[in-house]
Amino acid sequence: MYSLHKISVSTIFIFLFSSASGGDPFFPAAGAGEAGMGWSCVTKPGFWSSFHNQALLPFNSTASAGINYHGRFGISELGTRSAALIVPVENAGLGIIYSHFGCRDLARHSAGLACGLKLSEKISAGVQADFFAEKTAGEYRERRSLSFEAGLHIMISEQACLGIHVFNPVPGALRRDYLPSSLRIGAGIMLSRELSVSSEAELSTDGGPDIRTGFEYSPSGSLRLRGGFSSQGNSFCFSVGYRLKQVQIDLGFSTHYSLGISSSASIIFSLK
């Protein structure tokens, strides 16, 4: 017989799976800085780009490794743990990622191999092969799925850019197990050397559209402040990041109109 705690967690699982993409375990909840921008990051270069738009991988100039934890509403069973390794290669970038969502009774593991390439001075593209494994308690079988995702990044000018990302563009009729598909389209603008803003929209087969917007402000070379908003869950977000030599540390927070506050923490090591 389930305890009240397990029943409450199961209820939130059902709520999340039927609503916000930010609560979807297939959504790449990686990067505390990205969380602080309301996940408006399809045009944002950075270490966690392999989770959001593989076309941004060539913008990573040094080999790096990082880990991230995204805790939903203070409930450990809804946490996502992620790790990645990024290696630049001339005009390209390679990425290896891993993510784990859930707990002992319901867990989803994902792993991916990614490559991003600069096609020209203003256009870059990327692709990633994904593997998913879902494990549940009891007599239910373990489900495994293979898929892919791809992204495109276009520099319109020195200050403005566009980003497009598609996840699992495979018709459901061709799949044995359900796997959501999504499309993200966004734009970013550098208002100054210290301030950038971005906005994007996501359409997913797992829920309604999500409109996101965010900003990043760098008052110094080491400190970064970010804020954002996501229409799913009326989520307001904030994060702060600090770089100390070869280490980047970020903390992020987001709200949900009925479920409370989620927090994120990530650390990135430059492997010089």
Features:
Porin; 14-stranded antiparallel beta barrel; 272 residues; disordered N terminus; single chain; 3 helices; 14 strands; globular; mainly beta
Topology:
Blueprint: H1 4-17, H2 32-36, H3 49-52, E1 64-71, E2 80-89, E3 92-102, E4 106-118, E5 123-136, E6 143-155, E7 160-167, E8 182-190, E9 195-204, E10 207-217, E11 223-230, E12 235-244, E13 247-256, E14 260-270
Antiparallel strand pairs: 1-2, 1-14, 2-3, 3-4, 4-5, 5-6, 6-7, 7-8, 8-9, 9-10, 10-11, 11-12, 12-13, 13-14
Helix-residue proportion: under 10%
Compressed to H and E, one letter per element, the order equals HHHEEEEEEEEEEEEEE
> Could you say which overall geometry the principal axes of the C-alpha atoms support?
globular
Q: What number is the mean pLDDT?
A: 85
Whole-angstrom Rg: 18 Å
CATH class: Mainly Beta
Would you identify the CATH architecture? Answer: Beta Barrel
Distance between the termini: 53 Å
Q: In total, how many beta strands?
A: 14
User: What is the number of independent domains?
Assistant: 1
- Segments where pLDDT lies below 50 for 5+ residues? 1-23
In CATH terms, the superfamily is Outer membrane protein transport protein (OMPP1/FadL/TodX)
SS content category: mainly beta
Q: Which strand order do you get reading across the main beta sheet?
A: 1-2-3-4-5-6-7-8-9-10-11-12-13-14
Strand content: over 45%
Q: List the total number of helices.
A: 3
